[in-house]
Design goal:
Number of helices: 6
Strand content: 25-35%
Number of strands: 5
Order of helices and strands: HHHHEHEEEEH
Distance between the termini: 25 Å
Radius of gyration: 19 Å
Helix content: 25-40%
Structural class: alpha+beta
Shape: elongated
Largest sheet: 5 strands, antiparallel
Length: 187
Amino acid sequence: MEPDTGRTGPGDDWPDEHRYEVLVRVPAVRDAITASASRTRLPMSAEEFLSRAASAVPLVGRPMLRGAEHGRRLGRKLRFRTGRSYEAELPQPVGRALVAVLCSLALRGQGIRSVEQHEDGCTLTADIPSDARTFGGVLAVTVTRSGVGTSSVRARAEIPGQLIDWGRSRQTLAALAADLGNPGSPG
């Protein structure tokens, strides 16, 4: 979702703005992010899925729930992780690209963990919500100005503690690419 491009006073030059703190104070940007967040539909989490299995079939479900948590802790300790990367050049200014990423994160229920500001852009680190296949992960998206009116996007999705992510990293990056209007495939 893209905010209204009408010029309304202070913050008129937001499409070229690369600073996160400045962008999120622009009313049109906040409205676009809020509208995206209102459309969020999260799938059942892994924890909820296993909890339901435990209550439906207690003899099998409870050990499965404990085993999944033990396996997750062990996988993290052994530093198992899966992941994919994505890169694209977008024909839009850095501010518009950042707002498109923020709207995508809001739409997908990917809460922002941290923001690292750079000279010509920033890196947004967000949580990938848990679903029936994974216990969630981390999505890091860096958006930088790459020229006049263009921007570069680099993203990395990782699912820690699992040997197989059942396509979750690829799906996360494909959704981001689609939300940015760039059908390029994640690698």
